[in-house]
Every structure is written in structure tokens, then in C-alpha cells.
Design goal:
Kinase-like_dom_sf, alpha+beta, membrane, 20 strands, protein kinase activity, single chain, five-stranded mixed beta sheet, seven-stranded antiparallel beta sheet, transmembrane helix
């Protein structure tokens, strides 16, 4: 892997050998390795992906966009080497390369540390933000960076007290540099030592012998060592080296390093073999899930010892549209997106037929319930809902198969519009709005058995566009399996309703936010300042600056825009009871479409009569 580093405007390249990290629990005996922290994130459907977490953190750290990092539809992971920053990743499996290291020193960054977002990166080990102008405090949420080993915040403008209790929870932290800031600590002894060493580095060493009690920082030992360019304290260092206890500790460190090296050698040898077997199994399972049926029936069910393990493969397309195992093995597969508990692949067969395969894992749902729901969704057919081609369900993971949409998603369209690559005319905006409304209305009118499944995750990235740019609602039915912890599922979405529930009213709220985006040209999850779009629009309306709400592209259609604005504001009402039903929303939008068509028709007839 090639790592690009930018320090003080100079670019350098380094080559790093390939390595992999096995998830916790794969090899239990490795738990004894000191300093080797293996972390596995919980699976919550509403959590941001790594690229979204990284982008959100950078927005807070770099409000002046010194790094010139912009959101783009082509961004799939932080380690894509598309920016002049150091973001180092390691291969965990065939499906991902989580971030392990971020270095952003001497770049004049002037924002704050959004540790709450940053620490959601599961195996982040090294953070170097030295020699910037970072403001604010070191937040308590830094305690969530469980794998952190090296934290350098020196030479910044940080203030306030150090979160000593939070720091004491970082069991893997080996080095912590907070020199040349304006921070203090609630630990008097630590403050005295920090003043005495001046420009020395502050190095935090966790005492493995003493258990941390009451969360106090005094249960850690703090040592101070000079920065590489500082040699003014050499004599003091020599005195410390003459301490017999210091020599004894040094020998113990050497011995520990030797033992660790041997264990790591064993670990990586076995890891290579286990990972190879795992990759083979994943590839085999993906191929099996897309294999053709062995009978002319639409459904193919394969069960293996029902009392031990369930597995089934079901298609909802005609036999002549299916594809064989050999075709799949020869096909090209491209990882399009990866989140904490799902991944999306584009698969192109030799006949150029393309499919999108979504891989779900660790769902809190029984085999029977998942199959029952997917069969119901597979039979749902509407021009504004992306049809499910088929699915594979097993104990370990689930695979959903859709037809690949070359025009991408509504998020792709928004991004292209912002970058000036594409126009977003009023006619297309109106077509997208009424198409989404029709699809949602069908979801809530369709069930014959009375059981309604809310969508729960309406947002631009889940609205696909077909070859005619008609909107297609995707990922319907998935959210109900991803909300075992509903608060965590909804808390990261700019489109989630305040009540954070799976209901029709919540879907109406999400649609209202998208409708506001179409009217304003401002897109909720792309705003650098974290704009709350519904609040921003409501404030403009209260101040009687309604005309400033609309995007410049639709100024000629304000008479229709005001009608849609009233609809969208009702959709994003704080209280669920104040929102209209989706059928009422569709009716109002249809009135706008009809009115515009009547005027257009009248204008055409007038021209023809002349």
C-alpha cells in the first residue's frame, strides 16, 4: 500500500506491506497479547459509513476547507488517496479496509475535535494533529477511541481541563502529547509535572499492574520525554538513566517486546491461513447465492439440517433472466459502498447484464421472519419502487439482489448539480417529487393483509434513478431489521423525524426534507456547517424572506414552488400528528403538476392559434 503524507506543503511517498487484522473472537487465545486491541463495531443500520464519518470529522476540524476535501459520489472509502492527507487503512477482509491512522500535522487547521464522530472508526490507532490551530477542548468522548495508541495534539490552541477520567479509559494508549497548548488537568500532580517539563512531550503509560478504580487519572503513570528537536534537557535524562530501577524496567520492556514479537509472528502466520479460508468461503457463498435455480419454479429453497442451520435462495424473476454459477465466477465485481453492517457490490456478467448485490450481516431477525418479509417485498411491483430480483438468507448473512441502475441515486444527481456537472431543471425536480410520493403512497396502500411495513430510511442515497430519470425507492423493508437499538439507528441521519420511529409519519418527514432540498438547492448531508434544513427554511419564512428560500434554477416557477413549500413545511412539522398522510401529500403535489400542465397546454394552444 502507498501512503501519501503532506507536511508543511511537501509531499512524500512511503510503501507499506500488506497486512490484515482479524476480528475479535476469531482466534480466542490471542486475547493474551498485550497491547493488541481488537475491536468490532456494533451493527446499527443508521450508522454512518467510514467515508461519511471521516467527512463529518474533517468538516469540524477544517471549517475553512484548507484541505479542500469535498464530498463526491466517487468517494467510497477514506483510504482512496484522493486527498493530500495521510489516511492509512488495513485490510480486515475481502470486504473492507478500516482506517487505522490519520496524520494531519502543520496544515493550519482551525476547527475543533469531533471525537464523538471520529471514535466511531473501530480500529483507529494513531492520531497526529500537531502544529495546527485547533481550538476548543479535548472532549470526554475521546474515551470511545478504544484502540487508540498514539495521540499527538501538541502545538495547537486547545484550552480547558484535560479529560483525565476519559484518558484513563484508553487501555491501549502509549503516547499522548498535549504540549504547547493552554490545557490543564484536574489532577494537581499531573499539572505540576507538566509545568516542570516545559516543551517536553507528555507520554501516557498505562499501568498494567494496577486496576483503574473510580476512573481517576492517578491510576496511570505519566512519563515525559523530550521532543526530537529538543536537546536542552539532556543532562536530566542522563540522571534518569542512572536509576537502577530504570535499567530493570528497560530490561523488562525488552523481554516483553521479544515475547510479543514471537506471539505476533505466530498470530500473523495463522491469520493468513484463516483469512484465506474465510475469503474462499465468502466468495463461494456469494457465488452460490446468485446461482441459477435447478427447477422452473420462481422460488428455490435449500435447507441444511433445519434444526442446526437454515439457508434458502429465492428469485422473483423469470428463468431466462437468471444467471449461472460459472457466469458469476467469470464476472467482474466492484465494491461500491461499505458500511458497518452492509456492503454493496456491482456485478457485471459476460453478457453485460449488471446487478447490484447488497450484503447484510448480524441482523436481529429470525430466519422465518426475514424470509416472510422478503417474499412479501419481492411480490411488490410499482414503477417507483426498485424491485427485488432475489435474495439469499443464511444464519450468517443475507444477500439482496437488485437490477443495477446506471444513473445512480438522487444523491449522485445532487452531487453532480453542486459540482456544476449537471442541471437540475424544475420539470425534473417535480417529476422526482411526485414519483417518490407515488412510491410511498403505494407502500402504505398496497398491503392486502393489513400489515404495513414502513420504509424507515428515506434519503437521497436510497432513491435510485432509472434510465428515464424516474425515481425508484430502494432498500424497502430492510430498516425493520436494523432498529434493535432505534435511538442509534436514527441519530446520524439528517432525514430522520424527531420522534425516531418506524411509522408513516416518520417517512412523511423524511420525504419533506427531500422536497425542501429539491426546492432550495441545499442538501442536508452535504452542508459544511451542519445546516438543519427544516429549521433554516422555517426561519426564513418567519422573517418573511420566503423568496430567498428557492434555488436560482426555479425562480421562474416560484408560483408552483410556494405550493410545494407549504406542503414540505407541513411534512417536517415537529409533531407527528401535525403532518399530513402520504396520500394527502401526493394529492397536493398532483394538483401542482396538473396546474402546470394546464398552463403549459394553454400556452401551446395560444401559440398555435396565432
Amino acid at each position: 500500500m502507498i501512503v501519501i503524507e503532506l507536511r508543511a506543503g511537501q509531499v512524500s511517498f512511503r510503501f507499506i506491506g500488506n497486512s490484515r487484522i482479524m476480528q475479535r473472537g476469531s482466534i480466542p487465545w490471542l486475547a493474551a497479547l498485550a497491547g493488541l486491541a481488537l475491536f468490532v463495531s456494533g451493527c446499527n443500520g443508521g450508522e454512518l459509513s467510514e467515508i461519511e464519518l471521516f467527512f463529518k470529522f474533517i468538516r469540524a476540524l477544517d471549517p475553512k476547507t484548507v484541505l479542500r476535501i469535498e464530498w463526491s459520489r466517487s468517494l467510497r472509502q477514506p483510504c482512496s488517496n484522493q486527498w493530500n492527507v495521510v489516511v492509512r487503512c488495513k485490510m480486515v477482509s475481502l470486504f473492507g479496509r478500516p482506517v487505522t491512522e490519520i496524520r494531519l500535522q502543520n496544515l493550519n487547521l482551525s476547527g475543533i475535535l469531533d471525537a464523538e464522530t471520529l471514535c466511531k472508526l473501530p480500529i483507529l490507532c494513531v492520531l497526529i494533529f500537531a502544529k495546527n490551530r485547533i481550538r476548543g477542548t479535548v472532549p470526554d468522548s475521546i474515551a470511545d477511541c478504544k484502540s487508540l495508541m498514539h495521540l499527538d495534539l501538541s502545538n495547537n490552541l486547545l484550552t480547558g481541563s484535560l479529560p483525565t477520567v476519559a484518558l484513563s479509559k484508553l487501555k491501549n494508549l502509549k503516547r499522548f502529547d498535549i504540549s504547547d497548548n493552554h490545557c490543564g488537568s484536574t489532577d494537581p500532580q499531573l499539572n505540576r509535572e507538566a509545568r516542570r517539563v516545559g516543551k517536553y512531550w507528555l507520554v501516557s503509560e498505562i499501568s498494567q499492574a494496577n486496576a483503574i478504580s473510580k476512573g481517576e487519572i492517578s491510576n496511570k503513570r505519566y512519563a515525559f520525554s523530550p521532543a526530537p528537536e529538543d536537546v536542552s534537557h539532556g543532562k536530566q535524562s542522563s540522571k534518569n538513566d542512572d536509576n537502577p530501577r530504570k535499567h530493570w524496567q528497560s530490561w523488562m520492556v525488552v523481554l516483553a517486546m521479544g515475547v510479543t514479537f514471537v506471539l505476533l509472528l505466530i498470530f500473523f502466520t495463522r491469520l493468513k491461513a484463516v483469512q484465506a479460508a474465510k475469503d474462499t468461503e465468502i466468495t463461494r457463498e456469494l457465488a452460490l447465492s446468485l446461482s441459477p435455480p435447478k427447477s422452473p419454479h420462481v422460488e428455490i429453497v435449500v435447507e441444511e439440517k433445519a434444526e442446526e442451520r437454515h439457508s434458502e435462495l429465492v428469485f422473483f424473476i423469470e428463468k431466462h433472466e437468471r444467471f449461472g454459477l460459472e457466469e458469476l465466477l467469470e464476472a467482474s465485481a466492484d465494491l461500491r459502498w461499505q458500511g458497518h453492517c452492509s456492503s454493496l457490490y456491482g456485478v457485471r456478467l459476460k453478457n453485460n447484464a449488471t446487478f447490484a448485490v447488497k450484503r447484510l450481516k448480524k441482523l436481529q431477525v429470525s430466519f422465518e421472519e426475514f424470509g416472510q418479509t422478503m417474499r412479501k417485498i419481492g411480490n411488490l411491483k410499482h414503477q417507483n419502487i426498485l424491485s427485488l430480483v432475489g435474495y439469499n438468507s443464511s444464519k450468517e448473512k443475507k444477500l439482496l439482489i437488485y437490477r443495477f441502475q446506471n444513473n445512480g441515486s438522487l444523491l449522485t444527481l445532487f452531487n453532480d448539480y453542486i459540482e456544476g456537472k449537471r442541471n437540475l431543471p424544475w420539470k425534473l425536480r417535480l417529476s422526482i417529487a411526485i414519483g417518490i410520493a407515488r412510491g410511498l403512497n403505494f407502500i402504505y396502500q398496497w398491503p392486502e393483509d393489513g400489515e404495513i411495513i414502513p420504509h424507515g430510511n428515506i434519503k437521497p442515497s436510497n432513491i435510485m434513478l432509472d434510465e428515464k430519470e424516474e425515481p425508484l425507492i430502494s432498500e424497502y423493508g430492510i430498516a425493520k431489521f436494523l432498529v434493535s437499538n432505534k435511538a442509534r439507528f436514527f441519530n446520524s441521519s439528517s432525514y430522520a423525524a424527531p420522534e425516531k420511529r418506524l411509522t408513516e409519519q416518520a417517512d412523511v418527514y423524511s420525504f419533506g426534507v427531500i422536497l425542501l432540498e429539491l426546492l432550495t438547492g441545499k442538501f442536508a448531508e452535504m452542508q459544511k456547517n451542519g445546516l438543519d434544513l427544516p429549521k433554516w427554511v422555517k426561519a426564513k419564512v418567519r422573517e418573511e424572506w420566503t423568496g430567498e428560500v428557492f434555488d436560482k434554477e426555479i425562480e421562474k416557477f416560484e408560483m408552483y414552488g410556494f405550493s410545494l413549500l407549504n406542503i414540505s413545511l407541513k411534512c417536517v412539522s415537529e409533531l407527528p400528528g401535525d403532518r399530513p398522510s402520504i396520500s394527502e401529500v401526493l394529492e397536493k403535489i398532483q394538483e401542482v403538476v396538473t396546474a402546470q400542465e394546464d398552463i403549459s397546454s394553454s400556452s401551446t394552444n395560444s401559440v398555435e392559434s396565432i
